[in-house]
Amino acid sequence: MTVTTETEAPTPEQPEAGEQPEKRPPFMVLFGRYLTEANSVMVTIYSLLLAFLLGAVLLIVSDEHVRGTWSYFFSRPTDALEASWEVVSNAYVSLFEGAILNFHTLDRMAAGNADVGDLLRPISETLTYTTPLIFTGLAVGLAFRAGLFNIGAQGQLVFGMLGALIVGFGLDLPAIVHIPLAVVAGAVAGAAFGSVPGVLKATTGAHEVISSIMLNNIAALFLVWAIGTGFLHSATRSELVTKPVDDSAIMPGILAPIDDDLRVNYSLVIGAAAAVFVWWLLSKSTFGYRIRAVGFNQHASATAGMSIGRTYVTTMGAAGALAGLAGAALALGVGSGGITTNTALEYGFDGITVALLGRANPGGIVAAALLFGALKAGALSAQPDVPVDMSTLLQATIVLFIAAPALVKALLRLRAPRGGLVTLEAKGW
Q1: Is 114 exposed, middle or buried (0-12, 13-18, 19+ CB in 10 A)?
Q2: Can you give the pLDDT at residue 143?
Q3: Separation of alpha carbons 242 and 342, rounded Å
Q4: What is the model's pLDDT at position 2?
């Protein structure tokens, strides 16, 4: 005979007679506490504000006329304040107009002297610069989640760019097949190059920072050599530039029906899909669980039966594939007429700052990529009103504060969050 027993679920304690239940603080009180706490969201927001504040100070200091007005501040303070406001506001408005919406173009469009393409050009440039940053930010962020510091995204991007380029001009296929095949070739080339630091770490214990940064140099020098070979070098141009990809391999422009000169293309859509896939991979898949477990505690993961070495190799390979997609986006998009040694720019290294600002979270990485893409597009189009290095300065300052939450907490006298200050760490040194 089987005997079953039932137990009653515990009931919450009732307040004693005459005792008032504890009241929940009003919403504004809770919101105020959240604003004054050094949690990850507020540290990110305050880092952005502090970076723009520091940028404003440097703009004031670097302007000779504004410095002169500060020399007689106590006799006529309004001169210094007005001059400072003018130089800072003009610079930041120019950044906004070069990256999002140019109000002068809007006025000219209302007067019939500009078209929709002119109005959309700033946001098109922002999204063009954002696209490779999404891929490289995801490449660095995915490795972060496994406790790895993938500083080699630049080299992986270069090899992805070469892989997509070779397929782009080397095969004669219809566009519906040619473009996906070239994109896959870029991802495979990046994955192959990216897995090398993972293999070295798994087999010899070599740290991925050292090996991947050396591989960046190898990739850069290999690119110079490869462009100069007869196989890749353009047959019609004397400068160091490759052959263009075939028309069937050029990534279509998203805004091409409006204006052919708007450069943003469907690589941006692939980048958004990649971000969603990485979120699913980390949140819903067994492989993602293994990545997060190894990143949290590799010793406990090994005790649980996980292969640490295999996780390192596959994670670095997946990260390399993401960076390779950035190279494919460049080769088939802005570099479709032929790539040079400058086509890759610093997208791989900028991906590190994007991943840090996005806290290695796919959604945060996309938002950070949009911000840095806007800074890059705005700084380039706002010349000479804004120093060309302003974008780099703001990015570096943002990363400084993001990487040192204790500094933000001390400067603004924020309260420590319950779980303590959260920082991204790469383990294994």
Answers
A1: middle
A2: 95
A3: 12
A4: 44
Question: What are the phi and psi torsion angles at 78 (to 5°)?
Answer: -65, -30
Distances (CA, A) of 85 to 57, 60, 223, 341: 11, 9, 46, 40
Instruction: Give the single-character DSSP code of 285.
Output: S
What is the DSSP-derived secondary structure letter of residue 65? Answer: H
Residue 73 lies in a domain: no
Distance CA 233, CA 215 (A): 23
Select from 387, 271, 379 the least CA-distant residue to 329: 271
Q: Please answer whether residues 80 and 73 qualify as being in contact, where contact means their C-beta atoms are separated by less than 8 angstroms.
A: yes
pLDDT at 83: 93
Position 409 in a domain: no
Domains of the chain: total: 1
Encoded amino acid at 306, one letter: M
The Cα 357–Cα 115 span in angstroms is 36
Give pTM, 2 decimals: 0.88
Q: Is residue 115 part of a domain?
A: no
Tell me whether residue 108 is exposed, middle or buried, using C-beta atoms within 10 angstroms of its C-beta: 0 to 12, 13 to 18, 19 or more: middle
Residues of the chain short of pLDDT 70, as ranges, are 1-22, 385, 419-429
262 close to 256: Cβ distance less than 8 angstroms: yes
Residue 401 confidence (pLDDT): 85
Q: Confirm whether 61 is domain-assigned.
A: no
The first and second tokens of residue 40, run together, are 């990850």
Q: Which two tokens stand for residue 349?
A: 């290294």
Counts for the chain of helices (H) and strands (E), in that order: 17, 0
